[in-house]
């Protein structure tokens, strides 16, 4: 691979759902063969193969897939990698909540959070991620620690990973109006996103109104964790959509999880999806975390459902849908490395992003970019940044069958050094 300057990558496979402004005959997978010309860190042109000869000196990639760098719109890099010192005792959601809460109270100093965040971001960067939104546990007094750390980390990573943060707390925390207003101001000062976890509390509607009021007052987008449960009575996705409509909210709203929707009767589902579409909500599914936590049984019986929400039905209604990493090596998910190819591979299997593939590749690229308001991210286009990943695979079955550990990540036209951090770097944070 060339190292910067001007060059042409010839004979690459591009997925047409990710190349606005470029058109060419596609194969049954949705790919077209193309040449990509790069100059001064930008894509200068994308040309269909066969219309002209590749220029002399072009690097022939033999039909390998090239995708734009990934956008990971739902992560928790403040929680990441605490597993060795605080495992989930039984793999349940409550086990995760309690273990994480105890670890946060005892161990989340600024240094601890900063080092684990940096570790996570080095993983994401090496795997080809260009933008990432993290939630930040913001239960007092953690917000005073984690938000300044996040601002420093965001500055350090500028130009490599575009970072966003959303505050995270159970919506019951909104009852303390003065504290919540202070938090909203803090989030606004950091250019953040206002986020809460919704549950079916008796005063949920009033609390949602408080959340929307603060978002409107401070000009914030919203990001919810909703209905991460198999309990059919969990309908907070619908409540969020209704609150968005009656508050006339005009910002972006992203809702994560929405697992219980997949367990509800069809008529209820249709009503909820109508409201979600009308309110302009976007939904992100976290398939790996859902598979891990949902339907976890304490009686040594086998899980019977996949835990994910109704992404196909949502997409069919024009609701923007994404998939993302969620947790990594913490009590909510024992595994994971912020590798969005892994997320896409797992999503393909769990959620059937195949036969046809259609435009599902947008769910890890251009769709999350749009809902994070990141222009030019998640697509490949002439005039755009030369930020892309060159894979070995030449079609979906090749791409999604192996880990693609030898993928090439190009940023600003240059191949980056893909060095995954050694777990031993965090060993001193895991003792005691
Ligand atoms: Zn989450």
TrEMBL record:
Transmembrane segments: none
GO molecular function, a single term: isoguanine deaminase activity
Keywords assigned by UniProt, alphabetized: Hydrolase, Metal-binding
Superkingdom, natural source: Bacteria
SUPFAM superfamilies reported for this sequence: Composite domain of metallo-dependent hydrolases, Metallo-dependent hydrolases
Residue ranges of domain Amidohydrolase in the record: 200-415
InterPro entries tied to this protein: Amidohydro_3, Metal-dep_hydrolase_composite, Metal_Hydrolase, Metallo-hydrolase_Enzymes
Pfam families membership: Amidohydro_3
Name of the protein in its database record: Cytosine deaminase
Species of origin: Mesorhizobium temperatum
């Amino acid at each position: 691979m060339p190292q910067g300057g001007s060059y042409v990558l010839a004979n690459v496979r591009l997925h047409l759902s990710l190349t606005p402004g470029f058109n060419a005959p596609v194969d049954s997978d949705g790919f077209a063969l193309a040449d990509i010309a790069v100059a001064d860190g930008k894509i200068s042109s994308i040309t269909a193969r066969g219309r002209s000869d590749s220029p002399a000196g072009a690097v022939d990639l033999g039909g390998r897939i090239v995708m734009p760098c990934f956008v990971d719109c739902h992560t928790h890099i403040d929680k990441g990698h605490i597993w060795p010192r605080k495992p989930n005792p039984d793999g349940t959601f409550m086990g995760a909540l309690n273990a994480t809460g105890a670890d946060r109270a005892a161990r989340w100093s600024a240094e601890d959070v900063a080092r684990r965040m940096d570790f996570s971001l080095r993983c994401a960067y090496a795997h080809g991620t260009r933008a990432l939104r993290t939630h930040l546990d913001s239960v007092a007094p953690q917000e005073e620690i984690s938000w300044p750390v996040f601002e420093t980390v965001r500055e350090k990573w500028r130009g490599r990973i575009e970072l966003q943060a959303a505050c995270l707390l159970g919506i019951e925390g909104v009852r303390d109006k003065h504290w919540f207003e202070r938090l909203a101001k803090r989030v606004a000062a950091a250019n953040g996103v206002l986020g809460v976890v919704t549950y079916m509390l008796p005063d949920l509607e009033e609390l949602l109104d408080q959340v929307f009021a603060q978002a409107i007052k401070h000009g914030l987008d919203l990001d919810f964790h909703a209905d991460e449960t198999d309990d059919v009575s969990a309908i907070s996705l619908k409540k969020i959509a209704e609150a968005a409509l009656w508050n006339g909210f005009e910002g972006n709203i992203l809702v994560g999880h929405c697992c219980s929707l997949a367990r509800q009767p069809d008529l209820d589902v249709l009503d909820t999806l109508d409201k979600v579409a009308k309110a302009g909500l976007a939904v992100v599914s976290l398939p790996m975390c859902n598979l891990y936590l949902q339907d976890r049984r304490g009686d040594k019986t086998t899980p019977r459902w996949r835990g994910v929400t109704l992404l196909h039905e949502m997409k069919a209604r024009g609701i923007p849908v994404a998939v993302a990493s969620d947790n990594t090596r913490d009590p909510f998910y024992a595994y994971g490395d912020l590798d969005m190819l892994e997320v896409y591979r797992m999503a393909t299997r769990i959620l059937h992003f195949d036969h046809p593939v259609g435009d599902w590749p947008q769910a890890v690229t251009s769709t999350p970019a749009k809902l994070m308001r990141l222009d030019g991210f998640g697509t490949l286009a002439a005039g755009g940044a030369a930020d892309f990943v060159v894979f070995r695979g030449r079609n979906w079955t090749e791409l999604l069958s192996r880990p693609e550990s030898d993928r090439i990540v190009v940023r600003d036209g240059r191949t980056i050094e893909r060095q995954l951090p050694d777990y031993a770097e965090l060993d001193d944070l895991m003792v005691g």
